[in-house]
């Protein structure tokens, strides 16, 4: 250990930009074993592990780094897996530069953070290859069932824990494959789909029943699920795209980010996708403009490159230092040929012919940063210096997501919501309906996968407590 002075930081090597832009494979392979051990050995084993403190799951990071450095990989995996249901997924897609690695003590000392995410990926991928990932073991049957609405990271994490407690678990999801945004929202170059599917298959083999293509409100109401199960968890995530209020936003060729990414991921699965095949959701040969500065925008620009776009520009209303997306993702995008137009925002979308109504350019406003807003960030405002036009055949709106109107969709008007449309829960994570809990983005708003997993872990413990009390009360009633 403590090799951070003599051993420089080294991430797994990335493929050349021109090669990785030709496919949707992950851009870097995992470490060779000696390199992983060396990089794990850079950990300073500090007394207060800020990496763990700033991890939403509070993973035992220094401990499994030490085990990795000592060549005790199976023990490292078991410790990593003890706090996370998806360590290899978090190792791939967590913004480590903002969480664990960004708070690494040796990063503060100027030696470069321990490459925690890459080691985490290495540990669990090795575990899968070596057969160390054990089947999901269900606990002794409790005679109660739980319905989980949503097969994203929060729902999957909760389902796994609840099955371990001994409940019969049914997962309902509107899509034809489980995984939520892990499956259809995140591109393969960040998270190859077999990584998600093997996790889902493990849950299925563990006795969790998946009802894919089941939409609450269309195929059954929330009340019907409540009658069918002893407890219900709503973990739908947030899927309503935030709108742009600008003239011409309805022109053909102005599309939502999730529609674009879902079409691309479905093609990767080999599905028939008419909107991709007819060019509506395909960037090939087009001048693409992506609006936004978060991780979804980065996914869109890098997907456009791989689809063969003629050019790809990203318009963001703040500067580089104030963008919410991962700086590593920005660097990857720039290497692959994306042009970032900082301090710019769409003012209108132009079309050459009103009858044709196909977008031809984005009329952008130059922006500047003014006084800090309520969050403490400097608020963008229009720069009176003027605007400019950006040619565009395809404009992708990636401004984030809000909650859908679940009370209406689910036929449950009594389901309480906040002023942002997210579900209102108490300290027990129960909603306004008895026995109905909620977790993940549908409670906290659009957030990170690692937070969704944490929420799934927390809500499963809360539901376990509730269901035990419910069973005890039912038994007492029968005895009386």
Automatic annotation (TrEMBL):
Residues 20-131 form the Dihydroprymidine dehydrogenase domain. Gene3D superfamilies: Alpha-helical ferredoxin, FAD/NAD(P)-binding domain, NAD(P)-binding Rossmann-like Domain. Coiled coil: none annotated. SUPFAM superfamilies: alpha-helical ferredoxin (SSF46548), Nucleotide-binding domain (SSF51971). Keywords: 4Fe-4S, Iron, Iron-sulfur, Metal-binding, Oxidoreductase. Residues 146-456 form the FAD/NAD(P)-binding domain. This is NAD(P)-dependent oxidoreductase. It comes from Sphingomonas aliaeris.
């Amino acid at each position: 250990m403590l090799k951070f002075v003599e051993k420089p930081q080294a991430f797994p090597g990335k493929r050349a930009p021109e090669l990785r832009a030709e496919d949707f494979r992950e851009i870097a392979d995992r470490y060779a074993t000696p390199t992983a051990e060396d990089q794990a050995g850079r950990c300073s084993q500090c007394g207060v592990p800020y990496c763990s403190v700033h991890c939403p799951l509070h993973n035992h990071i220094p401990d499994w780094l030490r085990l990795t450095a000592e060549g005790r990989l199976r023990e490292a995996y078991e410790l990593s897996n003890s706090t996370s249901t998806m360590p290899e997924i978090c190792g791939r897609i967590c913004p480590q530069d903002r969480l664990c690695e960004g708070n690494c003590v040796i990063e503060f000392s100027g030696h470069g953070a321990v490459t925690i995410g890459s080691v985490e990926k290495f540990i669990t991928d090795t575990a899968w290859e070596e057969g160390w990932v054990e089947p999901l073991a269900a606990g002794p049957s409790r005679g109660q069932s739980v319905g989980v609405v949503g097969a994203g990271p929060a729902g999957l994490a909760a389902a796994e824990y609840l099955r371990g407690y001994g409940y019969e678990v049914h997962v309902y999801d509107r899509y034809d494959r489980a995984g939520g945004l892990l499956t259809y929202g995140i591109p393969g170059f960040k998270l190859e789909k077999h990584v998600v599917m093997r996790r889902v298959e493990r849950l299925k083999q563990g006795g969790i029943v998946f009802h894919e293509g089941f939409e609450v409100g269309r195929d059954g109401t929330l009340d019907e699920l409540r009658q069918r199960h002893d407890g219900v968890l709503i973990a739908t995530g947030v899927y309503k795209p935030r709108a742009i209020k600008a003239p011409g936003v309805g022109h053909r060729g102005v599309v939502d980010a999730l529609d674009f990414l879902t079409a691309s991921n479905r093609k990767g699965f080999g599905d028939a996708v008419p909107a991709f095949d007819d060019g509506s959701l395909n960037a090939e040969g087009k001048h693409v403009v992506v609006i936004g500065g978060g991780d979804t925008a980065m996914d869109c620009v890098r997907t456009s490159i791989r689809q063969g776009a003629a050019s790809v520009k990203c318009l963001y209303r703040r500067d580089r230092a104030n963008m919410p997306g991962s700086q590593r993702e920005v660097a990857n995008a720039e290497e692959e040929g994306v042009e970032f137009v900082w301090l710019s925002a769409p003012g209108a979308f132009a079309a050459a012919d009103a009858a044709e109504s196909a977008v031809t350019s984005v009329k952008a406003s130059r922006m500047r940063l003014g006084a800090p807003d309520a969050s403490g960030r400097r608020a963008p405002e229009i720069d009176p210096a003027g605007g400019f036009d950006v040619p565009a055949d395809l404009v992708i709106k990636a401004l984030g997501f809000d909650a859908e109107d679940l009370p209406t969709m689910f036929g449950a008007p009594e389901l309480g919501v906040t002023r942002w449309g997210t579900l209102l829960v108490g300290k027990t994570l129960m909603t306004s309906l008895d026995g109905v809990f909620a977790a993940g983005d549908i409670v906290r708003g659009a957030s990170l996968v690692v937070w969704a997993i944490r929420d799934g872990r927390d809500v499963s413990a809360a539901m376990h407590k509730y269901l035990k009390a419910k069973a005890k009360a039912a038994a007492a009633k029968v005895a009386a």
